[in-house]
Specification:
Length: 70
């Protein structure tokens, strides 16, 4: 029984739409995982930068102390 003014749902089109939604969901999950990896890489490189700055400043302090005693 079809009510007047109601739209029928085409099962083929509904199935195609369902598949597209599922594919997009998988892509979004993959993008979220890649974003987490990028954030982890950025945090690690930030720590390495600060470590390098600290080592460089220590070395310049030692060199200044040794060469400044003349």
């Amino acid at each position: 029984m079809v009510l007047e003014g109601s739209a029928e749902i085409d099962p083929v089109k509904y199935g195609a739409l369902w598949q597209k939604v599922q594919d997009m969901d998988k892509k979004i999950d993959k993008m979220e995982q890649q974003m987490e990896q990028l954030i982890d890489m950025a945090n690690r490189s930030k720590g390495a930068l600060w470590l390098g700055i600290g080592i460089w400043s220590f070395l310049t302090a030692v060199a200044g102390f040794l060469f400044g005693r003349q």
